[in-house]
Amino acid sequence: MKLRHIVLGTTMAAAAVSTIASRALILEAPPEYIFSEAPEALDSPPEPLDGPGVNASGETMPNMLPAAFQPPEFPALERAEPDNLMALVQALATPPWEATVEAGDTLDVLLSLADMDAQTRTEVALALTVEYDLRRLRPGHRLSVDFRPDGTPSVVTLAVVDGVRIEVTLDDTIASRTVTPSALTVERASQLLVNGSIYASLDRAGVPARFAVDLAQILGETVDFRRDLQGGETLNILWGQTVLRDGSEVGQPSISYAALDLADDRFEILWSAEDSGRATVYLNDEILRTVAPPVEGARLSSVFGQRKHPIYGNLRMHTGVDYAAAAGTPIAATAPGRVSFIGWRSGYGRVVEIAHGSDTMTRYAHLSAVPEGLAVGNRVVAGETIGQVGETGTATAPNLHYEVRVDGRPIDPLGEELLASVENFDTADATEILEATRTRFVTVLREDT
């Protein structure tokens, strides 16, 4: 008897997915008894035969199948409904649209690039305005649009700063909401050797280089960073950073402690989180002074003294210091006092002046606005907001011109200690805070390393 190999194949298709399964069966049968059509159904199960096989015969021919044979089990496949398949195709054909805001972009132009009609763009803009002032739209913000299977927009998302995003849902009614990611502040510490500038040394150590500005603001002329730094000085830094759950950093890092060993002296600075940048400076464990910078985290862009005027081009005396910051950034009083003037002064633009006793005055110039209710005669405390950064008067960019005058004569705000008196300061409490901060620095440093 001649042996033939018969390969039985089954092909199933669903949603454009094909599964082919096959199994070879060895049949002992003459060629003329092989049929392509399916065998007729049996009226009753076959009786077992003597021997190792199972009778699988029909009326046409006997077939011997091995007793161990089991019919192949094919996976159950769901048939894809035509509507569902079409929805899948449409969803794949309309991926989310995304864009990064660049200089000169407007919301309306960006949404039109997402093929959104004029009426929908207007409704989206109104919904976003409920949650966010669109005048604050800045380069780097992200805009995205999700679509329904039929290609119509379903959700518009504007991602702004610090992981915050504004979502507009386009349904029967249009709704907007602000989503603020959960975040926590972690402390970080670093100990480094200064070689070259403070800025470059911080950058090489992976510490935010902007802290060099904080040190310059606080130490001022007490330390001449060009002459006094010989190289090899130890600098300790403790700071906080806001981190999202995914580990990404948001917002600006905030310095809380710094210690600089300079020759035989040790300068230490403690920043208070409660007083808008107020800091206490220690020299060899003794309080040297307290300082309250007028603009927290701003860049010191121009110092006191002779300089080439940025507009007129001639050499002029610069009677204060300038802090570069974004328009609208809050400005704080640097010391307690009484408001003595609010108004305009020629090239100074909009100005607020505060009297500190009978002989000392601070001037805050180029302001874009002052708080509602602030008036001449009001008493203010250190850290209280008295205006916002602007570029009124003679200015080339948004900045604060900060000036200190004693008996009408301008003095260097960074080198003078008259406004940083330590009178009535609890020195015992300050010493205890310093010791606790030193301990915290060591603990965090060990954890980071």
Keywords:
eight-stranded antiparallel sheet, M23ase_b-sheet_dom, 16% helix, protease, six-stranded antiparallel sheet, Glucose Permease (Domain IIA), Nuclear Transport Factor 2, Chain: A, alpha+beta, metalloprotease
3D architecture notes:
- With 449 residues, the chain is an alpha+beta fold.
- Among the domains are: 96-179, Nuclear Transport Factor 2, Chain: A (Roll), CATH 3.10.450; 184-291, Nuclear Transport Factor 2, Chain: A, CATH 3.10.450; 299-420, Glucose Permease (Domain IIA) (Distorted Sandwich).
- Helix content is 16%, strand content 39%.
- The strands form 7 sheets. Strands 16, 19, 21, 22, 23, 24, 26 and 27 form an 8-stranded antiparallel beta sheet that branches.
- A hairpin with a 2-residue loop joins strand 14 (279-283) and strand 15.
- The longest helix has 22 residues, at 427-448.
- The chain starts with a strand and ends with a helix.
- GO terms for molecular function: metal ion binding; metalloendopeptidase activity.
- Its cofactor is Zn(2+).
- InterPro entries: Cell_wall_metabolism_enzyme (IPR050570), Dup_hybrid_motif (IPR011055), M23ase_b-sheet_dom (IPR016047).
